Amino acid sequence: MILAFLLALLAFGALLPIIAPLLRGGRPVASRGSFDQAVYRDQLRELDRDIARGLITGEDADAARLEIQRRLLATDKLPTAPSRLSRSPLLAMVVFAVIGAGSVGSYLWLGAPEVPDVPFSGRKAVATVDSQANSLDKATEALSAKLKQNPSDRASWVQYGRNLAMLNQFDKAEDAYRHAMALGQNDPDVMADHAEVLVLQAGGTVTPAAEAALKQVLALDPSNGLARYYLSIAAMQAGEPKQAIDGFQALLAEQPSDSPLRAQLALKIAEAAHSAGIPVPELAKGTPPAQTPGPDANAVANAANMPDAEREAMIRGMVAQLAAKQDADPANLDGWLRLGQAYAVLHEPDKAADAYEKAAKLKPDDISIPLQEVRALLTDQPPTEKLPGRVVALLKRVEASDPDQPLVLWYLGMAAVQDGHADEGRRYWGKLLTKIPQGTEDARMIQSAMDALPKQ
User: Fold this and answer.
1) Residue 116: inside a domain, yes or no?
2) Is 280:252 a contact under the CB 8 Å cutoff?
3) Do 386 and 327 fall into the same domain?
4) Which residues of 231-260 are buried (b: 16+ CB within 10 A; e: fewer)?
5) Looking at the domain assignment, is residue 387 inside a domain?
6) Are 164 and 140 in contact (CB under 8 A)?
7) Tell me: the pLDDT tens digits for 217-232?
8) What is the pTM of this model?
9) From CA 89, how far away is CA 22, in angstroms rounded?
């Protein structure tokens, strides 16, 4: 109400210079002829005073008088000044009404009066987002400086790529991921992130290069959700909507029933069904909601502001709680998988492998579990060191179930070469080369490794 009053007051102030003259009227303005007549009459009076004082002769006085009188008569022919507006309250009211109504009507037509103001809480949230964006920019700049000093830090290249992707700098992000993979950071999650950047780089189109990268991720980790999602998108774009629906439905069946991803997957299924000209199928039911409690928003915010030592202590405490819960419920497959991932993040590969072993016993036919165990054990493994026996045993176990698994072929070939069996290594890598798209970076790397082997 106060705002409306202030706006009306401002509008009245803006109109006042226009309507005030109409309310009080205009004062008459003297014409140029009236001014000239006054001057010439004054000259006649001055001439009479000069004659009286004897300053001018009679003949000169007559001539001067005639000239002044001629000019005085000529002033009657000068144009008169236009008349000013007279007082007109009615016209003032009309002007005020027309301008006021026009302003209000224009706002109602062109403006958005129904849009509410942003509350202070919302402004605070916007400010927080801006602050987070600035923090991300600074963190990315710091990573760039760090990588200039230590370009062989593959973990920093991965984080640098993720930051650049969040900043929508996809070309630079793709280059950062390539650096990380060239340094040996070839786990499926990093490769999937790289493939996603390729898709985003193309404006959402799954290009042939991105599709080849996604298939490579899926060969290493058949359960990788990101690769399966984008390959389903690729099927839609290739005119195979039914294949896309099957892919989305499989992902939907693995999502908890309360997952926010279900809405996005359901939308994609509807789009694919519409493209195929078929009814939208019944959506696959998800898994039960996850019961494992995680940190709330306040805990996450507090952790972000903690010193590194305190933050790590808090994370280790949470992992210890998860481990205690698993000991009390050893049949919880998802819990063992989460515990293995948590230990891997904490760079405790042996504990991570133990957790994956317990998960594998609950689901022995799932080869993705021992492969996760292999990746956990090799996370901090220098490329030049010999593969641990535990890793080789896991790889042999997977080979018995899936002899064409690319990760198994690569590492078993490496183990054979490290043991001095170049021919066996060449056999593994030659078989792997037939599974990799030709012309890719990975294919060139495998060929280079084979060329470096001793000649037969």
Assistant:
1) no
2) no
3) yes
4) bbbbbbeeebbebbbbbbbebbeebeeebe
5) yes
6) yes
7) 988 888 898 999 999 9
8) 0.44
9) 6
